[in-house]
Amino acid sequence: MTDDILVRDARVDDAQDLAPLLATLGYPADPTLVHDRYLRLLASDSTARILVGTCRGRVTGLATLHVTPMIHRPTSVGRITVLVVAPDAQGTGVGRRLVEAAERHFAALGLERVEVTSGVSRRPAYDFYRHLGFVDQGVRFAKPLPRD
């Protein structure tokens, strides 16, 4: 089935398809909100890229890419900040194709490292990342900031 998989840059009109994918990760959002976030993200971050994976013309996967400057590394770091595949398309190769496209994008920018994080509730994803050559390094800590 991997011959039917295409990876392309997301389009604004993909918002309707992206909303259910984000909900799969536990981030429900109305397609209108996704549309607005999409536009805001691309307008505010010239290094951001949003990719979709399609299978037989249907959007089945999403990856968002960012470049983060680092003072302690020789180059900036490429970060996959969202990677999700529709539950009925998992195991088809869509996720692998999205990661490969991200790696090519970051390498073309001259970056030497790609990172991805995954929540503790998403243990099945850990094996997927390890299978693709990612190694466990550290723990990410987060806390919400107070609103004014």
State the CATH architecture of the domain at 2-10 and 49-131: 3-Layer(aba) Sandwich
Distance between the termini: 50 Å
Largest sheet, strands/sense/barrel: 5 strands, mixed
Helices and strands, in order, run as: EHHEEEHEH
Mean pLDDT: 91
CATH superfamily of the domain at 2-10 and 49-131: Gcn5-related N-acetyltransferase (GNAT)
C-alpha Rg (nearest Å): 15 Å
Helix content: 25-40%
Separate helix tally: 4
Q: How do the strands line up in the largest sheet?
A: 1-2-3-4-5
Topology:
Layout (H helix, E strand, L loop, with lengths): L4 E5 L5 H10 L6 H14 L4 E7 L2 E11 L8 E9 L8 H15 L5 E3 L6 H9 L17
Parallel strand pairs: 4-5
Antiparallel strand pairs: 1-2, 2-3, 3-4
If you had to describe this structure to a student in words, what would you say it looks like?
With 148 residues, this protein is α+β, with helices and mostly antiparallel strands. It has a domain at 2-10 and 49-131: Gcn5-related N-acetyltransferase (GNAT) (Aminopeptidase, 3-Layer(aba) Sandwich). 32% of the residues lie in helices and 24% in strands. The chain has helices spanning 15-24, 31-44, 94-108, 123-131; strands at residues 5-9, 49-55, 58-68, 77-85, 114-116. It has a five-stranded mixed sheet with strand order 1-2-3-4-5, sandwiched between helices. Helix 1 (15-24) crosses helix 2 (31-44). The radius of gyration is 15 Å and the shape is globular. The model has no long low-confidence stretch (mean pLDDT 91).
